[in-house]
């Protein structure tokens, strides 16, 4: 009896092992078949195809999980200094937009082969692109959605740039390895995060707050909400993770389809008419966001852009002092551009027509590349005060990620009372702790409104301001009457 029982178990074990090998081989064949089917497909939709609906178990199978970066991790906002943009060929982007990307910053194009690279070079050169600002990443891909599968650029606890690589929420294995490919090519460490989430459904203020729709919870059912928040904190450094209810009835449910952070304290949200099916859900999210504090402990400044026909105006891209806004061919295009110009004075706001959809436009098809050697100014803006007798101390931490050294005689606070013709310059003084600086704005009388911004230069000639655009949209505080 015992020998027969052992034999049975050995047989079961062998059959189980053979079944597991067969299953693994089957999964490998399915992945290979899928890769062959999708490679080079220039218009694979941003949503799942009917074929992919039956392959959801393949999502993340080739993903490599690693421990997170050393703390404290910081994930910069999209409105912080960028060195360029990553797109994929075949593009899905209008050529004139790509030419504009390459005017002042780098344009990295993912191509599958040297022959594709030659085609892109000829196309962009003929269109007048600055080819000194065009570089190539040779790698096979499944689709054009570099925002959703591309690298998330962070800084680790030592101020060194890293890449967070979430699981791409599509069974597209070639796309899913692009962050690791770029990390290897550029010499940037890659941290594999065990959360499935697309880049278009995540935005951060750069100061510890992240935002998504509840898609991040729905697509990670093996984790609780607390676990999702904890993992995001470990890999991206966010202390607070907001996941909002869905706005649209259908579609991909990414946050960039209806909202966009323009700065740590300002958020652009679509506005639809009361007759629209999304109206109540949109306004419920607006009401909630109005009730929560931004990273400075104050209410968000909420800006609205009118989208009566589901125009994808929030699906824009900020690259330094330029904003690229999708045009949809409706009567509201010009109003959308003006909404951005009113909300972002000092920025160059540019509109581009393309093959945009209501849930897929410029932001979906490009991934910004954070400047790995940025000159970072961290500052909590001064709030209103009743103080009329003592100076107003401006404090900041300045980090030179390129380690070229700060130009100590070129660190300033510029300030002026309302109505003054120009700003007054006050030097920033280094505090006891290295990297911390302060300056004092003289006391003002009650009823005065004060505007100010910070300015810093390093020896690589990086020149940064806080807020980013400086004098065009400075910080303000009032001396209130008790």
Element layout with pairings:
Elements: H1 2-38, H2 50-53, E1 82-88, H3 95-104, E2 106-111, H4 114-126, E3 134-138, H5 146-149, E4 152-155, E5 161-167, H6 173-176, H7 178-186, E6 190-196, E7 203-204, E8 209-213, H8 215-218, H9 225-236, E9 240-244, E10 259-263, E11 266-271, H10 279-291, E12 301-306, E13 317-319, E14 322-327, H11 333-343, E15 348-353, E16 367-370, E17 375-378, E18 392-400, E19 412-417, E20 424-427, E21 429-430, E22 436-441, E23 449-457, E24 463-466, E25 475-478
Parallel strand pairs: 1-2, 2-3, 5-6, 8-9, 11-12, 14-15
Antiparallel strand pairs: 1-16, 4-5, 7-8, 10-11, 13-14, 17-18, 18-22, 19-20, 19-23, 21-22, 23-24, 23-25
Could you explain how this protein is built, in words?
With 482 residues, this protein is of the alpha/beta class. It has 2 domains: 82-370, 5-stranded Propeller (L-arginine/glycine Amidinotransferase, Chain A), CATH 3.75.10; 375-478, Immunoglobulin-like. The chain is 25% helix and 27% strand. It has 11 helices and 25 strands. The chain has helices at 2-38, 50-53, 95-104, 114-126, 146-149, 173-176, 178-186, 215-218, 225-236, 279-291, 333-343; strands spanning 82-88, 106-111, 134-138, 152-155, 161-167, 190-196, 203-204, 209-213, 240-244, 259-263, 266-271, 301-306, 317-319, 322-327, 348-353, 367-370, 375-378, 392-400, 412-417, 424-427, 429-430, 436-441, 449-457, 463-466, 475-478. β4 and β5 form a beta hairpin. The protein is globular. 40% of the residues are buried. The model is unreliable at 1-27 (pLDDT under 50).
């Amino acid at each position: 009896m015992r020998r027969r029982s052992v034999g049975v178990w050995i047989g079961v074990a062998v059959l189980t092992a053979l079944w597991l090998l067969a299953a693994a081989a089957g999964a490998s064949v399915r992945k290979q078949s899928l890769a062959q089917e999708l490679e080079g497909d220039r218009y694979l939709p941003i949503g799942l195809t009917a074929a992919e609906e039956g392959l959801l178990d393949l999502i993340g199978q080739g993903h490599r999980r690693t421990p997170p970066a050393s703390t404290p991790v910081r994930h910069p906002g999209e409105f912080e200094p960028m060195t360029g943009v990553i797109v994929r060929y075949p593009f899905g982007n209008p050529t004139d937009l790509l030419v504009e990307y390459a005017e002042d910053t780098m344009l990295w194009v993912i191509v599958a082969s040297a022959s594709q690279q030659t085609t892109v070079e000829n196309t962009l050169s003929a269109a007048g692109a600055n080819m000194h600002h065009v570089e190539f990443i040779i790698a096979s891909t499944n689709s054009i959605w570099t925002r959703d599968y591309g690298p998330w650029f962070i800084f680790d606890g030592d101020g060194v740039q890293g890449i967070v690589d979430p699981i791409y929420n599509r069974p597209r294995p070639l796309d899913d390895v692009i962050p690791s490919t770029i990390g290897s090519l550029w010499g940037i460490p890659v941290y594999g995060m065990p959360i499935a989430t697309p880049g278009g459904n995540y935005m951060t203020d750069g100061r510890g707050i992240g935002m998504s729709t509840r898609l991040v919870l729905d697509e990670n059912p093996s984790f609780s909400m607390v676990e999702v928040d904890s993992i995001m904190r470990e890999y991206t450094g966010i202390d607070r993770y907001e996941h909002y209810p869905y706005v649209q009835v259908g579609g991909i449910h990414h946050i960039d389809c209806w909202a966009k952070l323009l700065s740590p304290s300002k958020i652009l949200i679509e506005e639809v008419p009361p007759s629209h099916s999304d109206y109540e859900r949109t306004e419920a999210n607006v009401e909630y966001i109005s009730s929560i504090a931004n990273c400075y402990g104050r209410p968000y400044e909420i800006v609205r852009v009118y989208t009566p026909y589901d125009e994808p105006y929030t699906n824009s891209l900020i690259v330094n002092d330029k904003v690229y806004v999708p045009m949809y061919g409706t009567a509201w295009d010009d109003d959308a551009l003006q909404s951005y110009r009113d909300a972002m004075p000092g920025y160059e706001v540019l509109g581009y027509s393309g093959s945009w959809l209501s849930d897929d436009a410029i932001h979906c098809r490009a991934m910004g590349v954070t400047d790995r050697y940025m000159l970072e100014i961290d500052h909590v803006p001064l709030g209103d005060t009743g103080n009329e007798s003592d100076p107003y101390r401006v404090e900041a931490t300045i980090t030179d990620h390129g380690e070229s050294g700060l130009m100590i005689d070129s660190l300033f606070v510029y300030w002026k009372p309302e109505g003054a013709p120009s700003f007054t310059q006050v030097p920033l003084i280094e505090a006891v702790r290295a990297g911390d600086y302060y300056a004092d704005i003289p006391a003002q009388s009650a009823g005065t409104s004060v505007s100010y911004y910070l300015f810093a230069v390093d020896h690589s000639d990086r020149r940064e301001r806080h807020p980013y655009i400086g004098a065009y949209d400075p910080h303000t505080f009032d001396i209130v009457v008790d």
